[in-house]
Amino acid sequence: MLSVAIAITFIRLVIGPTMVNRVVALDLLAILVVGMMASEAVQSGEHALLDVAVVVGITAFIGTAAFAVLIDRDSRAHKND
Fold first, then answer.
1. Structural domain that includes position 40
2. Environment class of residue 78 by beta-carbon count within 10 Å: exposed (0-12), middle (13-18) or buried (19+)?
3. CA atoms of 39 and 35, how far apart (whole Å)
4. What is the pLDDT of residues 14-40, one digit of tens each?
């Protein structure tokens, strides 16, 4: 199910008409990858995957926050024109 969700999210990432749609799709993609890693860690008993999943989650959060600042800055610049 996670693989199907990743495929559908990737389609949204490619075709999403606005930058905001693409950022949300990218964030969802990161969350789904973290979910896949966590489920694989539980299934295989490999605890190192959980560390990688935490790093991917933190990186995705920082990236989403940076995109939000960029989008806000861009919208303010266009508002002043």
1. 2-80
2. exposed
3. 6
4. 998 988 899 999 999 999 999 999 999
